[in-house]
Description:
The protein is of the alpha/beta class. The chain has a single domain, classed as Stationary-phase Survival Protein Sure Homolog, Chain: A (3-Layer(aba) Sandwich). The protein has helices spanning about 25-35, 80-90, 110-115, 115-125, 145-160, 230-235, 250-260; strands at about 10-15, 40-45, 65-70, 70-75, 95-105, 130-135, 170-175, 185-190, 200-205, 210-215, 235-245. The protein has a nine-stranded mixed beta sheet with strand order 3-4-2-1-5-6-7-11-8, with helices on both faces. It has a two-stranded antiparallel sheet with strand order 9-10. The two termini are about 35 Å apart.
Amino acid sequence: MAEGPIALExxxxxxxxxxxxxxxxxxxxxxxxxxxTDDVWVVAPETEQSATSHSLTLRRPLRARRLDEQRxxxxxxxxxxxLVAHRHIMxxxxxxLVLSGINHGANLGEDVTYSGTVAAAMEAALLGVRAIAFxxxxxxxxxxxxxxxxxxxxxxxxxxxTLDWPADLLLNVNFPAVGPDEVSGLxxxxxxxRDEGTTITQGADPSGRPYLWVGNFLSDASSEKGxxxxxxxxxxxxxxxxxxxxxxxxxxxxxxxxxx
Length: 260
């Protein structure tokens, strides 16, 4: 189980994502991992698995394909990838740390409940392994530069590994949509909530049949201070501790009074 600090120089790191084995963000995160240790493994989905959340593939077999030394693809979800890596590919010596991402786009606020990137880190946490999810916000034109993540990512991991790591903890890191020299700092913050929800686009296919398409959140604006959403608006890197125990402890005594 996750516990005290670890020495990254001798650690085994598993890199995964939800954008797929060929995603540029995965390549960037692999470079970050290799700057920390020589023992880096990559196990990632064969195809894009965005917004698959913490789902497992249960109704069909999975196939793991070895693409190179310590590099595999799995035809399943990010959660599948972490589980297959831990219980099968790396079973003789599982990872000491799982890094997930770098996602092409934010995983802020409500995103964490949908995100395959965050879900991969969740699965690692359930398995007792330290885990960090990384995401890079898009610029207004939709483009992404990985320079900011590659500049700050290694130091974030090093600092995080000095933490006395509780069970079921994962960190969610979001890089703002600015270059490395424009970053205003690192900010530990809580998960936020957007002021507006998700769009639904209506349309018709070439045969004239109507369809609905779930889109993006209307904006990343939030009126709450101290949140991940507020941090990236200030061009800060948002670092949010997430915990897998979803129990609302304030309500539990009230329910005990009602139900015994």
